[in-house]
Amino acid sequence: MLVVERIERSGTNLSIEAKTDGAGATSVEIRNSEAQDDVAAQLADAWQTICSGLRRDLGAQIYGQWIKPIKLARFDSDNGDLQLVLPSEFAANWVRERYAERLTLAWKGHFSDVKNISFAAKAGAARIAQVKKGNGAAIDQGITAPQTGKFQLDLDPRMTFEEFIAGHSNILAQNAAQRMAAAEKPLFNPLYLQSSTGQGKTHLMHAIGHAYRAECPAARVIYMSAERFMIEFVSAMRRNEAMEFKAALREADLLMIDDIQFIVGKNSTQEEFLHTVDSLISRGKRVVVAADRPPQALDGVDQRLLSRLSMGLVADIQSAGLELRRDILHHRLASMPHQQVSEDVVEFLARTISRNLRELEGGLNKLLAYAQLTGRAITKELAEEQLSDILSACRRRITIDEIQRTVCEYYRLDRNEMSSKRRARAVARPRQVAMYLAKVMTPRSYPEIGRKFGGRDHSTVIHAVKLVEQLRGEDTEMDNDVRMLLRQLES
C-alpha cells in the first residue's frame, strides 16, 4: 500500500511531496513550480504566434469557427505530447481530420519540445492549460474553458401520434412524420411541414420527437422554435461561445425547428441554419422544419437555404374540414365520459370554430370548465354565450351573395331564381337551402335575409330554416347536399 502525503509551503515556489511505501521507507521529492510556470508561458506565447499565422493563412471566418475555440490542455515534456481541447467531440474530430498536420508542423516550428499533438473534447467548464513535467504532476494555470451549451428537450406529453387525429387534410403530413420517426432511414430529408396557424404541424413535430426517442433511446433530439434558435445563437456569439452552439446543433441525430419563417431576413442566422442543415443531412441525420407558408413563399430567404428546404418533402396541411373537426371533438370527449355534451353542441362548435384547431379545442375546454364550475348543462345557448369572443373571431365573413352564387352553381340554377316568385320545387327547395345557409353562416337577421331574397317576409325565412333543419334529419340526400355546400363555402 502506498500512502501519499503532500505538503505545500506557502510563500515559495517549492512543492514537497513525501511518499511512504508499505515497508515504511520514505522518499521526498522537491519540485520547482517556477520552472513549470515558465514552460506554460512559453507554450502560451508559441500558441499566440501560431494562431496569428493560421488566422492569416485560413481567413478570419474559418479561423474563428475552428481554430479560435482551441485551448491548450496538457503538455508532457518527457515525450513531447501536447493535448488540445475543443468544445465538443464533433469539433475535435473536424479539426483532427482537417488541420492536425498543419498544427503539428506549426508547433514543431515554434516550440521544438512539442513532438506530437492530440485532440480531445471537453464538456462543461473545464480547468485547462495544465503543464505536465517529470513524473506527471500538473500545475493549473487557472484558464477556464467555456461551458458547452445544452438544449433541453421540452416535448408536450400530450402531443403524440396516438393523439393526432388524421383526416383528408393532414394524412400526407402524418404519414411523412411517422416515416421520419421510424428507426430505418427516411425516404426524404428534410421534412418540411407547412400549414397555417393551429392546424397541427407543431403537434406532429412533438410526436416525431416522442416516437423517435422511443425507437432510438440514445438519439440526440433537439426541438426549438426559430425564435429560440435566434436568441440562443445571438447569446452564444456575445459570450464568444458560437462554436459550442454550432457544435451542439450539429451533433443532433434529429433537429426540429418550428416557425422558420421568423428566421428569414436575418442573414447571420440564415447562414448558420444553412450550414447546420448541410452538416446534418450530409451525415445522414434527420431534419424537420415547419412554417406557415411553402419554401418558395419565404420572403428574403437565401436561395441556397431555399434549395435545401425544398430538396426533401414539403408536406402541406390544409385547413381541417368539417368532418375532421367533428372527429377531433369526439375524440376529446371520448376521454371524458363523465362529460355530457349533446351532438348538436358538437355540430355547432365544429361548424362555427373552423379557422383554427387550437381554437376549436380551446373553445371546448373553456365550455367544459365553465359547466363544471357552475353546474350548468352544456347547451348550444351556453356555447354561444360563453364562446362569443371565439365565435365572432372565427366566423368567416361569408356574404349572402356568395351563398346564393354557390347554391345556384351546385343546383345548376340561374342566379335570378333566388329572387324570383316561382314556387316550383326544383327552384323553391334550393332557395330554402340558401336561406338556411345564410342564417347559419352569416350574422344577418331574418328580415335582412328576406330582403336579399326578393324582399320576402321574415316569416318565410324562418319557415325555410326550420324546414331544411327537419329535412336534414329525415332525408340523407338533403343532408349530404347541405354538408357539401357548407364545405365549399368554408373552404
Task: Record the SSE blueprint.
Blueprint: E1 3-8, E2 14-20, E3 26-32, H1 33-58, H2 60-67, E4 71-76, E5 81-86, H3 89-110, E6 116-121, E7 127-133, E8 137-144, H4 171-181, E9 191-194, H5 201-215, E10 221-225, H6 226-238, H7 242-250, E11 254-258, H8 267-282, E12 286-291, H9 303-310, E13 313-316, H10 322-334, H11 343-352, H12 357-374, H13 380-386, H14 388-394, H15 400-411, H16 425-441, H17 446-452, H18 458-474, H19 476-490
Key descriptive features of the protein:
491 residues; alpha/beta; GMP Synthetase, Chain A, domain 3; Rossmann fold; 5 domains; five-stranded mixed beta sheet; five-stranded parallel beta sheet; 13 strands; 16% strand; elongated
Brief write-up:
The protein is of the alpha/beta class and 491 residues long. It is 51% helix and 16% strand.
Description:
The protein has 19 helices and 13 strands. By secondary structure, it is of the alpha/beta class. The chain has a 5-stranded mixed β-sheet with strand order 6-5-4-7-8, with helices on one face. It folds into 5 domains: 3-33, no CATH class; 35-144, DnaA, N-terminal domain (GMP Synthetase, Chain A, domain 3, 2-Layer Sandwich), CATH 3.30.300; 171-316, Rossmann fold (3-Layer(aba) Sandwich), CATH 3.40.50; 322-394, Helicase, Ruva Protein, domain 3, CATH 1.10.8.60; 400-490, DnaA protein, C-terminal DNA-binding domain (Chromosomal Replication Initiator Protein Dnaa, Chain: A), CATH 1.10.1750.10. It has helices at 33-58, 60-67, 89-110, 171-181, 201-215, 226-238, 242-250, 267-282, 303-310, 322-334, 343-352, 357-374, 380-386, 388-394, 400-411, 425-441, 446-452, 458-474, 476-490, and strands spanning 3-8, 14-20, 26-32, 71-76, 81-86, 116-121, 127-133, 137-144, 191-194, 221-225, 254-258, 286-291, 313-316.
